[in-house]
Amino acid sequence: MAGKSNKGRNRRGAHATAHSSESVVSPDAPVKDNSSASESTKADSNGVSTLDESTNVTPEVKESETANSASQQKQGDLHLYPVSVKTQSGEKLELQLNPGDSVMDIRQFLLDAPETCYFTCYDLLLHTKDGSTQHLEDYNEISEVADITTGGCSLEMVPALYDDRSIRAHVHRTRELLSLSTLHSSLSTSLALQYETAQNKASSPGDTAKTEVPELDGLGFMEDVAGSLSNLLLSSSKEIKCVESIVFSSFNPAPSYRRLVGDLIYLDVVTLEGNKFCITGTTKTFYVNSSTGNTLDPRPSKTNFEATTLAGLLQKISPKFKKAFREILEWRASAHPFENVQSLLPPNSWLGLYPVPDHKRDAARAEDALTLSYGSELIGMQRDWNEELQSCREFPHSTPQERILRDRALYKVTSDFVDAAISGAIGVIGRCIPPINPTDPECFHMYVHNNIFFSFAVDADLEQLSKKRASNANLKVESSSSLNSSSDKASSCLLHGESGTPNGEKCEGSTTGEHDSSMEVASDVSAETQLTESEQATYASANNDLKGTKAYQEADVSGLYNLAMAIIDYRGHRVVAQSVLPGILQGDKSDSLLYGSVDNGKKICWNEDFHSKVLEAAKHLHLKEHTVLDGSGNAFKLAAPVECKGIVGSDDRHYLLDLMRVTPRDANFTGPGSRFCILRPELITAFCQAQAAERSKYKSEGDAQATTDSSEASDVAKQDITKDGKDENVKDCASLLAQTESYDEILFNPNVFTEFKLAGSQEEIAADEENVRKGSSYLTDVVLPKFVQDLCTLEVSPMDGQTLTEALHAHGINVRYIGKVADGTKHLPHLWDLCSNEIVVRSAKHILKDVLRNTEDHDFGPAVSHFFNCFFGSCQAVGAKVAANTIQSRTHRKDQGGHQSPGKPSRGQGRWKGGASARKNQSSFMNVSSETVWSDVQEFAKLKYQFELPEDARSRVKKISVIRNLCQKVGINVAARKYDLNSSAPFQTSDILNLQPVVKNSVPICSEAKDLVETGKIQLAEGMLSEAYTLFSEAFAILQQVTGPMHREVANCCRYLAMVLYHAGDMAGAIMQQHKELIINERCLGLDHPDTAHSYGNMALFYHGLNQTELALRHMSRALLLLSLSSGPDHPDVAATFINVAMMYQDIGKMNTALRYLQEALKKNERLLGEEHIQTAVCYHALAIAFNCMGAFKLSHQHEKKTYDILVKQLGEEDSRTRDSQNWMKTFKMRELQVNSWCLRVVESWMIFICS
């Protein structure tokens, strides 16, 4: 929302003030991955010259910035106008509003403002300057009621009547306010406050002592990473206690005769003074009644205390409450505004406080827990998620303001859906929600709760490995028994249908090459016949379905609808949540299928109206209209995968479901088990742009031979693209807008390389297949090598598994290629470690989740701690009879269970069946040992990622980084204590604090803001600061209205705004924007996310620019701590941060400390990147500057000579950086000669003096 309060503004200084031009927008995920690491490495640390250059250029740029600042603010803030608000307590408050703001926006701001945060039930009246008064409805826009641009408008909060729902919400809000748990204070804010306090003390009269800048423990973090875990989490601020307890009274519900006079609720309150009160909540007020014993006395007490709010009443009856409540409001008022805002989808934390805080009595918390509703509404009807979502999509969106309103509604509804889906999935997995088809086999169970449909998906990759390992082991023991067991598995795959078991294709994959030809034939029969039913329940198909849903949502074709969708991983299970298709639960709706197939292509439905809408979407998705044959040989024209389902709902809307293949299959993976190995949409976009650029190039050159030989043309195109402009293929979308026509001509047939029968000529089918092969070859021949090159040059610099995955996806590379990336980076230790550790974690994740699926609720803590001890320590299996291989034993167990209940083996039969089966599975995790875990990890890595882990992989992994990565992927929360990871059992059961759901969602992005950011980045790269600032500000203002401030895209905007202001020389403005980014990153990405670390590093640079070096160093200390957790000590970004730290110490004269950091940075870069890498040259240059400051000009010249030699080899003699280095060498040499001549003169004068 654009509105801001002048009164509730942050009072901490320039860095945290609520700025009226909160500006900056963020790039989309792909660009961000590339820029976040690379830009921070360059802007933060690529050489001492960076800061020197910026300070030299600043004055000229700053003048132009200042001159244009007024216009920038106007354009970026969408014109804010002051409107005063008269609160219920009679105070005056001023808001800065935009005419497009809705009344809901104003209510949200008043809920966040300290002065009005405890008012929840009120009406808003708008008084205009002509004396008229308008009552504002919640969904009104200000502009619909009055014109605030002319001034003279004011708002008034008028108490409204409570009802059952609103009074309970009011009590809940009051309880929430009385706890500071909703206030998320950042360490940066605390550091700034401490620094400001220290400065005030130092500047006070009589205190002239200069504060000594402490030496930070940056090197210590790198030497003892495990010991730094406890430093990550901030100790919770001192809780301000206002009241002993506020609980719903056992007098509830109000008797009927009292409801007739307005009683709604009764509360029992115990104040800090020890007094007990029974409070009545009516439709108008709260008051203390006269009840004392077990009988209700509704009469007001003799003191006759009453107020329109609960907090207001408590202030009257308890002086201690009044004092403590004032402290809470002051605390909230002093916080940064973003620290008071709630995050809709906060990230999981993998670390918990240690020692574990005492669990104290809290009646309110107990009430909330006991009324758990798994995401559904407590009062009133449940939400119809599908109707809400589709209605929002039908909002008009022809004007910018209409698009903002539509995007905001879609974002809010989708976020609420995801939140409810998480709660519902927890209830489903915890067996608190019964299935809607309990008489069916367990594998077919489906669940509907809160108008959300839930189903389970299975880990087909693990099942494939299980069967392979089992068949291998059995073949060695007895070939005949192996054949029988495999035959059972093949028939099981044929029978299970939609269950979670691997489909026929997977069975074929597990038996190929292991059995005789008769088995292969039997398996092949099932390989391509039951794909739709069986594969839809796998992890890969669920992921692809979510991506396909996002793609069609972004295509945004009028009249074509998709369901809301989320994927929740919890306690080893994967649950797919979708909004309920209208009419699907009301009887047989088989005739509602208008498009696609439900039986794997045997019968295909087609509808002209539906096809026209799908065809329009296909143009956005680069999908080709093509002809397929059904089982009877009938031809149908489709523009989507055959297995998609176009259904008309009971609301007469056209829904497209099961979008598992909206991009073509990867031609590099066409073997068994690879049905859902598809190309990423980013790659398709990049390939189409590259081809369009090539065609445009040939057209302009008049090269007629480009079309005569398609194979030769493609080879030439590949070579030219590889040499000329691979960067533009993936990153620079805006650079190819002029080639839209040829760009749109490149279309892919999604059904090639599948079992579906394609109609048309053989030439057309061959051309479609060749097109897909070209795209796949483009991935392996162009994109992958370019990505590896970018990694080696630090153009892309991922810090951990998450940022590596995002960087891969941004370049259009599937994670299954990570093994090839690792092979291409063997010469760079930090990259090879990063890739191999990610492969290890992803492999271990599947095994750990399988352990959790087969673990009873009371064994989760022991199971996880035992697995961690096996994985990170050296732990043996505890069971009396240890299976030779855990995956083999799991397979046997599941096969036996499958005869009783055919279907989903991954659900864990014992968890649901009870009896002997439950006792058998109860402690199955105890059969796991270090040897079996690592053997399974190595097998899985080889099967899934085609990567051979080295024999010493177990000892080479970065244990803290791997623990962090694995906990984040599985949702585990461990105690933040120092672990002895060299011991055989470093973890205890008490160290496992929680298991949390891990969520993938389809929350939409704001495309308009994204486009503004992309354009702004181009302007920033060209040095057009004023234009870039305006674009980022506009994007920020849009995102503020669509998503609110707590969103990753908003953080990126703030980062770019900070960069613009930094280059313009406005350090205070840069700090303000950077502080916003830091708070958002901590709240939305996590305390130890690499982007959060870079935020702290940038804050340090900006503070250093203001000569606040002590504060800068404290931020650098935090940045180093976060880097040590995410990447470990061996990463070029750590070395770059060391250089920045050294520069700061150098500027305050601590040369010895600066030299220590520079020498450590040099060691790291030489070890990680090589002695001739440009970053190594940066270290030598920084050392040369440091020695120059110390007067050691000879050493300066020596180090600069090494810099020069590296730059000549890497960049050539004509590069500007090489010439700069040459000039530095001349300077140092000249100073060395001057010192030598001065020394000679001194010696000569002494000799003359002695002789005389």
Structure description:
The protein is an alpha+beta fold. Among the domains are: about 80-160, Roll (Ubiquitin-like (UB roll)), CATH 3.10.20; about 165-185 and about 240-335, Hypothetical protein (hspc210) (copper amine oxidase-like fold); about 800-875 and about 925-1000, no CATH class. It has 47 helices and 25 strands. Strands 2-1-5-3-4 form a 5-stranded mixed sheet, with no helix packed on it. Helix 1 runs parallel beside helix 43, helix 15 runs antiparallel to helix 16 (about 480-495) and helix 16 (about 480-495) runs antiparallel to helix 17. The radius of gyration is 33 Å and the shape is globular. It starts with about 30 loop residues before the first helix and ends with a helix. InterPro entries: CLU-central (IPR033646), CLU_dom (IPR025697), CLU_N (IPR028275), CLU_prot (IPR027523), GSKIP_dom (IPR007967), GSKIP_dom_sf (IPR023231), TPR-like_helical_dom_sf (IPR011990), TPR_rpt (IPR019734).
